[in-house]
Amino acid sequence: MDKIRIEGPCRLRGRVRISGAKNAVLPEMAAALLVEGPVTLTNVPAVRDVETMAKVLRHLGLRDVALEGSLLRIGAGEPGEPEAPYALVKTMRASILVLGPLLARLGRARVSLPGGCAIGARPVDLHIEALRRMGATITIEHGYVVGSCRRLRGAEISFDKKTVTGTENLMMAACLAEGRTALENCALEPEIADLARFLNACGARVEGAGTGRIEVHGVPRLAGAEHRVIPDRIEAGTFVMAALATRSGITVEACEPAHLVAVVDKLKECGADLRVERDAIEVRPDGPLRAANVVTVPYPAFPTDLQAQYMALMTRAEGVSIITESVFENRLMHVGELRRMGARIVVDGQAAIVAGPSPLSGAPVMASDLRASACLIVAGLAAQGETTIDRAYHIDRGYERVERKFQELGARIERVRG
Ligand code: UD1
């Protein structure tokens, strides 16, 4: 297993380009199952989850799934095999995104249950319940979600809880359903609006994506289209926080600051000197940061996917901050590793209380999930001495060339092949 080794503390400088959003491209790839014509996606990040979704699509019988740099082409075709097996799904929960498209296109689906996951139970009950409302018969058999239907039919569905992939799954399923589907209490994430833009370019009739109410008028078929994936707001936020944690001046380019308003506001509250441009955020080195409390809440509030990185940053800030994770029930596993680097953090239920500033010292640490590994990189860059992060495969799931991008900013960071 690869490790990431950092010799800190590092001072970053220069410019970094943000890649396309992992959480936008994954549903867009799943949507290719709905589409008859060829699909071209551009600004696709070279991350492991994209490779995994490509494997899932190939397994489902889509031929010609070709990744060439940031370009992904999926040839015209029809899925043949309705089964997404455990071996693939267990490595990426987002595989559940094929459930709605398979039911809509083939009238059959067998998708392994994602199962327990490092960051909480993360069930898919809301996806299943909503697809049943559209006329699908769904059972759980031997660890698989097994669904069948004739043609899905439009329905009025109100989600009990905001779910990002649940909203996406239903939005995709409704595209080929008979009649009109109204989805209420939808998640508002920009990746959902991006998926809708792609679906509409293919001939779908989706309205309201990005708001709490989405209406979809079913159409008999969808044609292929070309689509540019939006920038990854979580990668952008991670680089901004890495710069602040190391008191560095960098420019984060090719991002979409409009998707990071809550994050930028929070960082400014901490005293960060940020200049926001149309598609870039400039971080300027400034005086010490002040601690500020944060609660993770679905978009447009502060994202759970930046909670861990923010915690690393708060170990550098003056004062006490309370970081409350309200989206997932078990997403504070990085606390133990940060403590091993000298951070003073106490966990109280879903909240972590961070006393800063702490002089961090490099240590061997273990990544427990994707965003926790980003948090450990931020901490390692700020810490004195050597940090080695074990299980680097977690970071490769969602960050493109992470060590190269930090090297280009002047960090002493390298991958140690395992
Ligand atoms: C997506 C993102 C992930 C992000 C998360 C929250 C993708 C591919 N992944 O994950 O990076 O951390 O949103 O912003 O876009 N829930 C249920 N039943 C369900 C579905 C969800 O109880 O059927 C709960 C979950 O356990 C969790 C909450 O709802 O507590 C939100 O989860 P959800 O928005 O569905 O997360 P994902 O779509 O899996």
Structure explained in plain terms:
Helices cover 31% and strands 25% of the residues. It is built from 14 helices and 24 strands. The chain has helices at 22-31, 48-59, 86-89, 99-106, 125-133, 164-175, 190-201, 233-245, 261-269, 307-314, 334-340, 370-382, 393-396, 402-408, and strands at residues 3-8, 13-17, 39-42, 65-68, 71-74, 83-84, 108-112, 137-141, 144-148, 156-158, 180-184, 205-207, 214-217, 226-228, 249-253, 273-276, 280-284, 294-296, 319-325, 344-348, 351-356, 364-366, 385-390, 413-416. α5 packs parallel to α6. It starts with a strand and ends with a strand. Uridine-diphosphate-N-acetylglucosamine (UD1) is lined by residues 23, 26, 93-94, 120, 122-127, 161, 163-166, 187, 191, 304-305, 327-328.
Q: What count of domains describes the coordinates?
A: 2
User: What would the average pLDDT be, to the nearest integer?
Assistant: 96
SS-based class: alpha/beta
Query: Hetero groups bound?
Result: uridine-diphosphate-N-acetylglucosamine
**Low-confidence parts lasting 5 or more residues at pLDDT below 50?**
none
**Helical stretch tally:** 14
CATH architecture of the largest domain: Alpha-beta prism
Helix content: 25-40%
End-to-end CA span: 4 Å
Strand content: 25-35%
Supply the CATH class of the largest domain.
Alpha Beta
Biggest pleated sheet: 4 strands, mixed
**What does the overall shape look like?**
elongated
CATH topology of the largest domain: UDP-n-acetylglucosamine1-carboxyvinyl-transferase, Chain
User: Mind telling me the C-alpha Rg?
Assistant: 21 Å
What is the fourth-level CATH superfamily of the largest domain? Enolpyruvate transferase domain
How many beta strands in the DSSP annotation? Answer: 24
Spatial ordering of strands, largest sheet: 22-23-1-24
